[in-house]
Amino acid sequence: MDQHRVTASQDLKKDRSQPKEGQLPQKRDFAQMQTSQPNGTHAQNGPHPNGVPVQAPPATNGQISNANTTANLPTPPPLDGSWRDEPVNKSLGTLIERLAQQCFGDLNDTLTKMAETSTASGAQTNGVLPHTTDTNEASLSKKRLLMDFASNQRDRFIKTLILSDWARDAEEIARLIDIQLWAARQADAQRFAINFFYSTKQDMRVAKMPNPNIEAALELLSTGKTSRFPDLGYLPPKRLSAKQLLKTLKGMNVALIERLNLHEDLPPYFNDFSVANGRATFRVPDEFEVDVSVADEDPSTPFYFIDIRFLFAPTPSLSDDGLRMHLEERVNAALASSGLQGCYDFLHRYVLAHKINALRAQASKLLRDKWFDCLQPEMHRQVFTLQYWRGQRAAKSWIELGISSGKQKGAKSRRPPTPRNSFRWFRQGQEVKDHNIDIDWQNLDLASTLASVTAKHTQWLLHSIKERFDILAGQNSQVDAQLKTSDTDPDDCQLAFSLAGLPKPIVTRFEPITGRISVSPPNRNAQQAEKFINGTANADAGRALAEVLARSVQDRLIPMADAAGWTSVDQSRIVVPPATKAMLGADAIRRSLYKCSQGWGDAWALYVHFGLEGEKWFVVRIQESIEQGRPVRFMSTARRLNLPSTLANLTQASLRHIQEVAEAEVSFAVLIQELNDSRLEYRIESTSSLTKRGADSEPGLAIYFSMNTPTKPSGSKASLLPFKLASWIRLIPSTLTNVEDGVAEVRHDVRFTVDPSKFQHLSEHLTNSTRKSDIAMNDSGALGLKVNVPFGKPYFAMIQRRLTHCDRLNYYLELLKQFGYRCTDVGLDVLSFVYSDVHDLAAQITFDKNAAQSAKLKLSPINSNPHQRIRVALEKSYNRAKNRGLTQLAWDLRVTLPLLRLFDKLESAESSGESASVYTRDVHRYTLTYKAPLPACSFAISVQRGQSQIPGPTGVQFRCKPEAALGDDALSHALREFSKGDGHEWFGDHVGGFGAGLAGLDEAFTKLDQAIRKCEGAVVKKQGTPAEHVTPAPNSTMQRTQSQQRPSAQPRKQSRNSHKQEVIELD
């Protein structure tokens, strides 16, 4: 069949080489020619040879030529065609395409190699060679390359052509492959069945037992003889006596000693021997003792084996007679062939191999016990490999126990090397040369060996973690790393990390059996670290443990911060610029951001940095900017707090202290920025807390700055203050106060020294009074202030203003002293004084912190103070006067007090209290009105200041005149008569009015009131204006104080016909 296919393929090649298929006559098959022309004759009489038709051959080998009988044949078994759908099958087109690509690539390589071959020596013009034999090696090499390429490619394309021919009958070829696979599987099944039956038969030999000879056994046991065994007639040897036996043994001893000392070349390891009881005993330490003897005195006769004892544990058992006989045969054969040297070599190798096997058996037992699924034992020839910590993600680690040749590198010796047991340790794929692990080959204990190996491995891992940890921590590390190691017990190997703020150290160990890391004390952070290190190949264990330390410290702070009222700030939406990152440090592992109080607002936060250098505390400023149309929050400033490690003894008191220091640092940051902008000198120094005394006082920080220096290096040297300071200003921030609308105020203690003569009045008052206000001073000129400023806001201008207020306060005290007023409360915000001790009248001025000249006036007592009538006018007058406000206020209180008391007296003269009323236009102008039942009239009253501002009787004048012109009525005649008179410190103006000083004011108003009341019931006529509708000028500022501000001293009865008066206040 194969021959026919080859022939057919050759014909197909020839047919394809023709222009058209079928134009040439088909070539006849040589086999057909042989069949049609037997014996070399030509065909005659038609297609049949010799003209006789050839009959069908008979059936052979069971084949039936009749086609009708095929229907009775059994159905062939189904064929497995699953190979057709396998992915390894490639299409013919892909094969041809790759073949073409490979041909093109080989052609390029061939041309490149030919071009690299130099043929300059034999080159001719235009590449034409003469008609001679080519002997140039380069040219022959090129031709050889080209011919090799052509030959190889021709073979490949011929194979491809054959495949293409088969592809024309792809279904038939596939069916042929199916049949071939089926036949191969059947043959494999037959071979397997034969081998199975053979092996089963071989195994059954052991199970076979010969039939016991019961009869012979009974006869032998009962009589001691048996008739079934023939008697060979052997004579039993004579039993030796004790003397003969002793003599024989001595002779054997002599023969052994003589032979060993004179005739034998003993191996080096057999030098330790002894002769006794007719045998020579050779001892090899840690291996065996062997007894040999001789049967003849002839030195050429070999020794023979007597007994062997092993000198290591566990020893092999030789109780099996078969094993002992086999060992005895092998030893005697070695003694016969190689003498004592052969005996040593055989027994030595036997012992070495047995030790390896004993350790292998121990490994199997350990694998079944506590090392389950953690060991991988393998045996390669005479080397036993044991992989430990099988479940680790790192590279494999194993030990090798085998037999080495005993050769030592670089050592030269005449003695041939002796094999010995060897031990090698591979740690994570790398052999450890200097492991210093001693294997006890006398007492074989694989568990102890594994303990030493795992202890060394654990020690190496912990040391690597510590080195990585030291690199991460740097030189300023606050972590106390304690490494405890052991060479034999891995449980004693541990690495403990202690950091301030942790109640217990973080202890790291490796489990001896599994090799997995364990971190204690167990918690969520330790569990995450264990999962990461054990589940990640080449995990950075040092970084993970540093994360555990930082997280543990952070977790300890979180509940305490929540209890202290600190609010955590989301850090994910806050951008940290590179400059701020440099301020915060690159050693941060964990970070926390807190807002310690609602008064902090959103601009400042407390930043806690947890790292291996300990925790670091910062205050950061958070600002907002617009980027790409969206608001972005970022950290613009970071200032570190000067705090020791506070997490070691974390309490609520320590958190409050941290908050106070942070608030002080915020104040420092704001002030320093302003001082830098103003180019003023400053320094920061450590000081003791001003609010604590004794041993429990904690050090704080104070900032010292000068305000005598000009704001610019060049230009005018105008001072920032109206007075010169004798020292730098010391500022110490204190706690938050007055939290309102999310913004709090910080109280600052300001200390500085001035010339006592500059603030003489202030010093006299503060040194003689109790310290209850926000300002204090001593005799030496040291002055202290308490200044409240908004948290995190610029406040340098406020401090400057408060210092200026000190000078103003000293001036106010001097002025009040000149007026004779007694100060009761002196402060930067409040000034209280008594301006009338007789009537117990006092005033309190509350200064505005922000406005330069703005104050609120409060008078006491509230119900009986006459100045309540003009309190608002006095307050406005004070604020309008600016720097001279207190001078104006003090003078107004002095000069208006008699007038206002007279007004109260006039209004309360009658029970109804509605006939006379006083309206206030301002502090120095008033309107006095009378109405029914009295004649309706009004008077303009003014207070005029004299030339001197010093209080006295001549410093003020009061003027009173009617607002309407006098007529011919009774009231006008009465007023004319009154104005013609005069008295002590008063005089009339002849037109119904008068002028008076302080002393004559009471008399003048009394006579005026009497004159008007005498005209009760008279009708006042005024041109164009009814008498009952006389009112003050509409453009004047009036206040009705009788009915609204100051209640009357006596109860008044409301008239039924009277109407309610309205209070009008116009600005």
From TrEMBL:
- Region of interest (Disordered), residue spans: 1-87, 1021-1067
This protein's major location comes to nucleus
Q: What top-level branch of life does the organism fall under?
A: Eukaryota
Name the record gives this protein: Mediator of RNA polymerase II transcription subunit 14
* Mediator complex subunit MED14 N-terminal domain span: 91-296
Q: What species was this sequence derived from?
A: Pseudocercospora eumusae
Compartments where located: Nucleus
Keyword vocabulary terms for this entry: Activator, Nucleus, Transcription, Transcription regulation
Family assignment? Belongs to the Mediator complex subunit 14 family.
Which residues are listed as membrane-spanning? none
- UniProt lists compositionally biased (Polar residues) regions at 32-44, 1033-1052
One cellular component (GO) term of this entry: core mediator complex
Q: Which PANTHER family match?
A: MEDIATOR COMPLEX SUBUNIT, MEDIATOR OF RNA POLYMERASE II TRANSCRIPTION SUBUNIT 14
| Subunit record text | Component of the Mediator complex.
- Per UniProt, the ranges with Basic and acidic residues bias are 1-19
Q: Which GO terms describe its molecular function?
A: transcription coregulator activity
Q: Name one GO biological process term.
A: regulation of transcription by RNA polymerase II
Show the InterPro entries listed in the entry: Med14_N, Mediator_Med14
Query: Which one Pfam family would you cite for this protein?
Result: Med14
Q: What does this protein do?
A: Component of the Mediator complex, a coactivator involved in the regulated transcription of nearly all RNA polymerase II-dependent genes. Mediator functions as a bridge to convey information from gene-specific regulatory proteins to the basal RNA polymerase II transcription machinery. Mediator is recruited to promoters by direct interactions with regulatory proteins and serves as a scaffold for the assembly of a functional preinitiation complex with RNA polymerase II and the general transcription factors.
